[in-house]
Design goal:
Blueprint lengths: L7 E4 L3 H12 L2 E6 H4 L11 E7 L5 E6 L14 E5 L2 H12 L3 E8 L5 E6 L5 E6 L5
Parallel strand pairs: 1-4, 5-8
Antiparallel strand pairs: 2-3, 3-4, 6-7, 7-8
Amino acid sequence: MTVRLNPYINLRSSAREALAFYHTVFGGDLNMSTYAEGGMPHDPAEANKIMHGQLDAPNGMALMVSDAPASMPTPEGSNISVSLSGDDEAALRGYWNGLLAGGQPVMPLEKAPWGDTFGMLVDKYGVSWMVNIAGRRG
């Protein structure tokens, strides 16, 4: 049996836009369903909001995003960051550059004391990201 841990991002009303943005960064297959399509009880004013969106990237990453209904509280901030790591420097730098569009760097993507290249940013949707590119091992 396979088990996966997937980031699931809840936004207030920008899930469709965010998923389109993440699709430009990560590529892959994007599927979205609205509250009206999902058959869940919902406020009619929120029928066209995204109940569930999933981006399946070609490298096996999955990212899920939804619009939290107005009846559900969402935290102002979060103590969670989405972390991207590995040794494919070109891919990870590409993700960094894509996610940084319209966002803010927290720590620049540069050589870290532990030998890897590391950086932190908050994207234009307020999601915190960390990128770690493994250094060359001797």
